[in-house]
Amino acid sequence: MAKLEIKNLHVSVENTEILKGVDLTVYQGEVHAIMGPNGSGKSTLAYALSGHPHYEVTEGEVILAGEDLLEMDAAERSQLGLFLAFQYPVAIPGVTLANFLRTAINSRRKADNPDDKGIPIPEFRKLLKEKLDLLKMDHSFAGRYLNDGFSGGEKKRAEILQMATLQPRFAVLDETDSGLDIDALRTVSEGVNALRGPGLGVVVITHYQRILDYIKPDFVHIMFEGKIVESGGPEMALLLEEQGYDWIREKYGVKA
Ligand code: ADP
Ligand code: MG
Q: Which residue of 14, 64, 142, 195 has the smallest Cβ count within 10 Å?
């Protein structure tokens, strides 16, 4: 089983250190939740993993399937099987979701084999139909322009469809900051559950524990002030539901 290993990761944004030594190992087949109060660095972790130029890694390493992730550009990270979903995906008017997915698949194939001529259309149609059915999505959905006028729930749906067709080894889903409506929450959860399996490791980043009523994580981590301060099983999410984050602030916060 391949693993995604984050070791002592320090990340700065505009010369301010946000992540102060994050350690996390995720094996394929596992679902991890990262929870934590707003501003604790959860999204920073996701952006750093994506290779976003604004997020400077100053120390530590990230190893994906034995390779140094931090040496790769965003495309190479994706080709190696890392998928990242952000809360605010960009709209691409004029490009249908189906075309976008086909382009993504083809760039992945070309990276594996420079002579690849792209996925044959019938094969792509079959794959797309299979995934739309798996995710219980209407077939007309793939014909719409990517994220153009999509509702929050539809954006999530498009994201999950991307994940289903790209078949990554590891997916990091940042769902935080503003509340997803119940429809979007269900979409993400049902999608992740449908795709869950031995070949996929998932990191669900969330402020709210309610998504974990739908996606049962194997491990729950609490991030606070740029570090993972507690790790446990699913019971940790319930503890947070009952007690909120105050005990974390008291235990780990700087005393006044
Ligand atoms: P979370 O996702 O846990 O709410 P973030 O990773 O978004 O936390 O933010 C952690 C800290 O980093 C916050 O103090 C935030 O203000 C700061 N931060 C994050 N991204 C940026 C950015 N692009 N520019 C400046 N500050 C940032
Ligand atoms: Mg966030």
A: 14
Nearest CA to ligand 1 atom 11: 39
Q: Retrieve residue 32's tokens.
A: 């991890």
Question: Residue 90's closest CA among 33, 147, 45?
Answer: 147
Q: Does the pLDDT of residue 255 top 70, yes or no?
A: no
Domain map of the chain by residue range? Answer: 3-95+167-251
Take atom 6 of ligand 1 and give the residue whose Cα is closest: 41
Q: Which of 220, 138, 234 is nearest to 187 (CA)?
A: 138
Report pTM: 0.91
Q: Residue type at 62? A: V
Burial class (CB in 10 A: 0-12, 13-18, 19+), 73: exposed
Alpha helix (H) residue ranges in the chain: 42-50, 74-79, 97-112, 121-134, 152-166, 182-195, 235-243, 246-252
Predicted confidence (pLDDT) per residue in 138-193, tens digit? 999 999 988 788 877 788 888 889 999 999 999 999 875 456 777 778 888 888 99
Which numbered ligand comes closest to the C-alpha of 42?
Answer: 1
The structure tokens 């070791």 sit at 7
DSSP structure class, residue 197: B
> Cα(170)–Cα(2) distance, rounded to whole angstroms?
9
For the domain 3-95+167-251, what is the CATH code? Answer: 3.40.50.300
Does 20 sit in the ligand 1 pocket, CB within 6 Å? no
CA of 225 relative to ligand 1 center, distance in Å: 10
- Cβ atoms < 10 Å from Cβ of 7: 14
- Give the ligand with the smallest distance to the CA of 39: 1
Rounded to the nearest angstrom, the distance between the alpha carbon of 4 and the centre of ligand 1 is 23
